[in-house]
């Protein structure tokens, strides 16, 4: 039986005792006064009504307390594991060695294809099987909780490496439950007992979000929290390094657009790439603050260089879809009196937004202000094709694989068809990561509009950009 179920039963029993014992004592006292003290026992209708009323009130009171206890349950109603708040409170006192997060990646697909009743049965069976499996491997006092719909948190008094091995075996042995295929992903982290459990859970959640394969990353929670604080501090200080990558215009043979890449500089002078710091920034809820910092720097730089030069940079789709952010962004661009068309916003999403029509209206509103919009990494995900079907983008930046595989017959055929489509729609085409003359000449033959890469021109710093184009 799950530890959560045992503790919940114990909790309800204690509540029943707390409610029942005083009530029973009260009934005993009343009965004693009515019947025992008098030598002649005469039960009147009045006495009967009083006793009946007391008994009814007592039963109702006990039932009310039990119902109240159920509403304040420790359990997740679907799986009988601990709910998130109960899990955190329990772990504070137990102080386990390891925290783990187990995610069912295809949970929504299971619900859609097998029905949510079968999904709930499968979830219960997964948790029960996990509890038994861990017990068989010598893990005691197993604490399992529900972090969110598809995520389960585990607190285990065993070393992280051991838990890593056990969970790896579990996901292999139980990849099918009730003839339903289960796709797991998990991560484990050492509990240093110094940081809050919520912080540790947030860190391990970031690990899982960033994983592409079913592998395990074991990290020191202390170091991860220190990194989180360092990133928060760097953003507060706006400690960002901007590099400008030239785009060569194939027709004029001049550079008139620069794409911007950004690194974050910590106090110890470590440089972090976006793939490291952005997930943490987003998880902390600081994505919009970061995007506004970037936008301000881009606009400021644009105001210091020649008006023939445009700057292209990435903004988070989540920021763009926020009305408050969009208003602030447009106000920043307007305040510096720069030509809006010199600002090119790059967007990229792996998955198509669920409300695509509303999102495209937002993009269209941005376009009406004169700002240009580009799809980044075009061809790397299905969402880019969904968006281009319904929206007239100004530019398309093709995924690097098209350049790298330009000599591959299949890749080249697809590249040509996409270029043809863009030409017919009057969309400017950009090839990135051009590293040698062979790629460069081939792209010229394909009539690509812009090329970027070390084979074209090396990136430059903000200072070099201003000197060259002031």
Automatic annotation (TrEMBL):
Location of the EAL domain: 224-470
Transmembrane region(s): 15-36, 48-66
Any one GO molecular-function label of the UniProt entry: cyclic-guanylate-specific phosphodiesterase activity
Alphabetized UniProt keyword annotations: Membrane, Transmembrane, Transmembrane helix
Keyword Membrane attached: yes
Keyword hit for tRNA processing: no
Residues in the signal sequence: none
Name of the molecule in the record: Diguanylate cyclase/phosphodiesterase (GGDEF & EAL domains) with PAS/PAC sensor(S)
